[in-house]
Design a protein that fits this description.
Length: about 300
């Protein structure tokens, strides 16, 4: 019988002038893996069972809510940005004014490592979290043992854009009522996952309820999106990264097309690449064993 993986309750850590909500799985004496989630998405999107599987490979797995989402600090004093206007400015190559950018969010992450007394971690980021992880590798390389960038782009504006359906989804705020949110959540996940994944579909409403009960924050999601736009391209800077890097991407991603992941892998010197057939912009349960093995194997090879 497999021993249960220890799971600490959620706690708050002071970081970069704000507070971040975090929890962990596994033995704090093991090599740390820090998981960074994407746009408008709470830390619980790193599923408990996924985290436990990664911890079972000999890691202390830490996940957290980024600023402006979940239970972490909300930057409401900065107001609600005009996302459409900012997106148009970005597409025209004009500067985007934002209350914070991905460098600020990377510093949040460094502050969390400091608060947890972690010198260096295996850093894994998904989507916007992958962009934050890339920024960490560029600006704070001494804090990473390895980098794993999942379904993320370099921000190069010449790369393929999201599908029209995915872009519309990105630009539409979530409903604030429970019934509307549940409907929107299932529609969103169906679009992002792509093909049918029965195990995940069976859990969609449970996951939606967990996110709803922890608290939705549409204004924070808008500020995070503008932070991405304001940060621009990391393409040139990624060429100087020397942190051992793994890029994981699905070949059916409607939001961040596969070409974006390939670009990251081709830009970072020596980066390894794993393309998962049939995976969209999500981490389906059936692909967990392969993803966990890839992350753990990457950490072992870099040791």
């Amino acid at each position: 019988m497999t021993a249960a993986i220890p799971h600490t309750p959620a706690a708050m850590a002071r970081s970069n002038g704000i507070e971040l909500c975090w929890d962990s799985f596994g033995d704090p004496r093991a090599e740390p893996v820090l998981l960074i989630m994407g746009l408008a998405t709470q830390m619980i999107a790193w599923d408990d069972a996924f985290c436990a599987k990664l911890a079972a490979r000999g890691h202390w797995v830490v996940r957290f809510d980024n600023r402006d989402v979940g239970l972490s600090t909300k930057l409401d004093a900065h107001g609600l940005p005009n996302v459409v206007q900012m997106l148009q400015a970005s597409m025209l190559g004009q500067p985007v004014a934002a209350p914070y950018n991905l460098s600020d969010m990377a510093r949040d992450t460094v502050g969390l490592l400091d608060a947890l007394k972690i010198d260096r971690a295996h850093v894994v980021g998904a989507s916007m979290g992958g962009a934050i992880a890339q920024t960490l590798a560029i600006e704070h390389p001494g804090r990473l043992r390895t980098l794993t960038s999942i379904m993320a782009t370099s921000g190069d504006p010449t790369l393929p854009p999201p599908t029209p359906e995915a872009l519309q989804l990105l630009m539409t705020p979530s409903p604030a009522d429970l019934e509307g949110y549940f409907k929107r959540y299932t529609q969103t996940m169906k679009l992002l996952r792509g093909a049918s994944f029965a195990l995940d579909e069976a859990r969609d409403l449970e996951r939606a309820a967990m996110a709803f009960n922890r608290g939705l924050h549409p204004a924070g999601a808008a500020r995070q999106l503008v932070a991405i736009l304001a940060s621009g391209s990391r393409k040139a800077a990624l060429a100087s990264v020397r942190v051992p890097t793994l890029v994981i991407h699905g070949d059916a991603d409607p939001l961040v097309p596969l070409a974006c992941g390939i670009d990251v892998a081709d830009t970072v010197p020596g980066a390894q690449r794993l393309v998962i057939e049939g995976m969209g912009h999500a981490l389906p349960i059936t692909h967990w064993p392969r993803i966990v093995e890839a992350i753990a194997g990457h950490a072992t090879r870099a040791a």
